[in-house]
Amino acid sequence: MNATAPLLRVENLDVAFGETPVVLDVSFTVNPGECLALVGESGSGKSVTARSLIGLAGPGSTVRANALEVAGVDARGLSQRAWRSIRGKRVGFILQDALTSLDPLRKIGKEIDDALRLHGSGSGAARAARVVELLEAVGLDDPVRRASQRSGELSGGMRQRALIASAIALDPALVIADEPTTALDATIAAQVMDLLGGLRAAGSGMLLISHDLAAVANLADSIAVMQGGRIVESGPAERILGDPQHPYTRALLAAVPAGKPRFAPLSPASTRASTPLPDTPQESQAGGRPVLRAEALSKSFTVPGGPDFAAVKDVGFELHAGRTLGVVGESGSGKTTTARMALGLLAPDAGTVELFGEPWSQVPEAARRTRRSALGAIYQDPLSSFDPRLSAGALLADALSFGATRNPRKHAAKISELLALVGLDKDLAGRNPATLSGGQRQRLAIARALAPNPRVLICDEPVSALDVSIQAQVLDLLDDLQRRLGLSYLFISHDLSVIRHMSDEVLVMQGGKIVESGPTEAVFTAPAHPYTRTLLAASPGVVSGR
Amino acid sequence: MSIERQELPPGDPVLAQHTAKRPAPGTRGLRAVAARLPLLLSAAVLAFFVLAALLPNVLAPFDPLAINPVDAFSPPGAAHLLGTDESGRDIYSRIIHGARPSLLIGAAATAIGLGLALLLGTIAGFGGKWLDFGVGRILEVLFALPGLLLALVFIALAGPGVGTTVVAVGLTTAPGYARMIRAQIIALRTSPMVEAATVLGRSRAKILATHILPNALAPIAVLGTLGLGQAVVWAASLSFLGLGSPPPAPEWGAMLSAGRTYLALAWWMTFFPGLAIVLVAAASTVLSRALKTAGAR
Amino acid sequence: MNQPLPAGGRSTRVAGAAARWVLGKIGGGLFVLWAVATAIFFGIRMIPGDPAEAIMGGPGSQASAEALAQARADYGLDAPLYVQYFSQLWRLSTGDLGTSYSLKTPVSEVLGELVPPTLVLAVLALLVAWALALVVAVLSTRSGALGSALASGLEIVSAAVPHFWLASVLIMLFATALGWLPPVSTNAPAGLVLPVATLALPLAGFLGQVMRDTLEAAHRSPFALSARARGESETGVLLRHSLRHAALPGIALSGWAFGSLLSGAVVVESIFARPGLGRSLLSAVTARDIPMVTGVALLSAGAYVVIMAFSDLAERLADPRMAGS
């Protein structure tokens, strides 16, 4: 193979499913030792493009191209057998979410061994040794034991490393990674990115697929931005990130909340309310009575056949009127358990929650019920929190009438008002939420939470399932509502850039404990705890504002 | 724009097969009908037998009980569409008249099965740890006597007859339904939907009545449709074994039982009543699947 | 589940869990047997009618008052209820299933003769059903949407076919019309074909539906894509990945399959005039031979408990995801 020839040359690639085109006229090249990032939101055609490059575009697809050279082979018109000799050997492919990307019924070692065996690499013993070597190379401890475990027995980061080991088993010249870090916590994602960076440094060509511009910034030499199946802009990474030309690229970059001051709009699509806003958010009187106060909360769960699991240990905080308290931490840090105790859904083992200075967690549910209208909640997956039998209007009627009626006509005016407040068309009232888009569902969930006129909203990962441009719109909406209605937010997220943009004060949680807390800017610019520093280091662009 | 656009020959079998089945323009409407054909046929079959059960005299040309020894064992033909039995009774008319008792037995058994299941399932789903445990043990015992066995033990205790058959079949089908209803209720109780309603300040009783029960009962339509077909088969099995409807009655299982004696002589006596049962059972399966898909959106 | 298991203390915890599992299964099984025996004991006494009458040949026998009294004394029916109940439990727990009313021989002896022929029938049918279901599932995933639809239709119809009708049709076709196979079952291979086919086809239809769904889901899953991206062929994906996943629901449905086979055996043994548990149960039910019914019920409940324990174990061995639950 000629060392100077590109590893991947794609010209005018079209992919269609049936009559529907999903990739249109896409061209790019990847040279050895170079990383191209293909960035776009869901439905942009980036994953289908990646799969077309190994002949696995999927059922019902038609693939056309003027040129499709993969690792020095003209891939147009390849037989199935010829494709198989390329896959795994010359091109390694890494998928997202390794829990199901590795067969849960088979041992990790077997999965990696398959790649070696299929391309006739060595005897059984030699392959077994190579498997251990590979697992060690991707940074797994105790590789001999790992090889005999199944994917369900490993943590998310370990699984992703094992998947990478199976993809690079034969030192492929080209590695295609489709959202390799999306399901991972920030610190783990950073480690996996480092691992991929090492492969590139060793001379592999790399095609990195991601929805997140910030996540690829460190690794990519060049970036191609995809929208609606087309590449709308491409070029060197510094140019795309520093001087974007296409409006869509600009919108994507603007939508990243990192480095944007509080209340600065993230989305050009967000129309600000016409009613005049107060110049500054309602400042709480320093030392004034907090609206929500937690003191020394602890909660343990029993684990069958094991010691109790302490989900939350000695957590306390104060949330003041009109302010946002951000809670940030990785999975298993106790964020959601804390939120559930604050909502009075879970009784703490120790400690208390007070709402407006009155006991909240210690009183019976019947006593809480009458005061619940002051406290609302929105979740990561709004659809599962809606009764599937109710239309959007019926959901709002139910919330507005405190459960007395589900007839949308009884509260038609108020429903229209609520829908307008969250930026939804009033005609959507008749629709079933399942037919709405992700962003519309979250807006509807916010409208429902606002129906009883609450003072405090608890937001548990409210934008984590949304594309970055939709996330920007929803965050803008929450900002807008906070200023207009003087709401207080307890805002939970794993995403540091979202937390930094949204919060006045912040709590950093790890392993059920608060490791650091304070005013947002102070925590982000001068982190005191090593864990906070690790988190920040793992989140590219959060500190510098990119 | 490009001079030479080359379509990739589909080397991948998955790709090839699906590229090949891509509909040519114009065949799309036909495909849509073809895809719905099993559903339409099933609806037609069930509608026919329900009509037969409601108005047997309209559809049946002969009296189902009228004996005519001269015509005994006539094979299917112009005079008797599906032939006659040992006493010269018209098989087709007997199948039409048999629709009512057969479907009624099936429906009554399904109602008993679902009713019992609803009781056990809701007790287990709502009653807390100990009631759930207790009901779980009861279900385990019922499961340990699977299928016909439980029905036969019940008949051994209560004696044969139509009423016993109905209860026996209901009892047989109950544990499976109960387990499904329980699982449904428990999934709903811990669902984000219920949590959201709690946060909105709804009481436990209100959440139970407006969210959990209606959503837990939604699958009952699916279960009932599926169960009807199964119950008709179970009940006919018991009749066939001589434990259900007594012989002269035009009930499908009893007709089969009578035909068994003349299997070598008059195959139509057994074949057609059995076909009616198979049609009802298959149609109810197809219909319940469609309901399930529609319910899941 | 997301966290790797700590290395230390794992083996002792596993051993403890295994011991708890075994004890739980044994306790649950004994409870089921006790409940079945108790339900039948009190069930027969709650229903109008005299057990002594059944011993003398049923209500039609018009046995004399002396004969009935003698039967009551012979079978201990004149003792107080609780004495009868506990002595019954004691006898059952020592393995004494009593004497059949109608055959006048010990139930355990009768059962000993009846189990082997039914077991032969059921095991053969189970093997054939598994093979058929797997073949249809594999073929349908390889032949596209049309094949899949066809297989689905075939499965729905065969799962809906009642045993008694299928048996009748098979007899009419292969015994009466073609004369290839005997209409009466023997243990000779030819005599087993029709009864086994009758039992296997509906079971295959049901198993096939579930296996095909799982197989198709496994074929579309990310791990299958990973395997293909590694250079695995479609056959390799099937053999090394999808088939294992398809087998899981098959194992989980063992209890259901047992029920289907036992119910089917009642009908099939009657139609093919084949000696066995099912046919004897039917005649015992008709004669209201309670000791015999109790014996068959306890035997099959015991078999069910054992089968469920093994299928649970097999699932845990095949699927590590189950092991923790």
Overview of this structure, please?
The complex is a heterotrimer of chains A (546), B (297) and C (325). Chain A has 546 residues and is an alpha/beta fold. Chain A contains 20 helices and 21 strands. Chain A folds into two domains: 248 residues, Rossmann fold (3-Layer(aba) Sandwich), CATH 3.40.50.300; 184 residues, 3-Layer(aba) Sandwich (Rossmann fold), CATH 3.40.50.300. Chain A has a six-stranded mixed sheet with strand order 7-8-9-3-10-11. Chain A has a six-stranded mixed sheet with strand order 17-18-19-14-20-21, with helices on both faces. The N terminus of chain C is likely disordered. Classes of the chains: A alpha/beta (546), B mainly alpha (297), C mainly alpha (325). The interface between B and C is large, with 49 and 57 residues. Strand 4 of chain A pairs antiparallel with strand 1 of chain B, so a sheet runs across the interface.
Order of helices and strands of chain B: EHHHHHHHHHHHH
Distance between the termini of chain C: 10 Å
Shape of chain C: flat
Biggest pleated-sheet summary of chain B: none
CA radius of gyration of chain C:
25 Å
Helix content bin of chain C: over 70%
- Number of DSSP strand runs of chain B: 1
Counted by DSSP, the helix tally of chain B is: 12
Q: What is the number of E strands of chain C? A: 0
> What radius of gyration of chain B results from the CA coordinates?
25 Å
Task: Report the β-strand fraction of chain C as a percent range.
Answer: under 5%
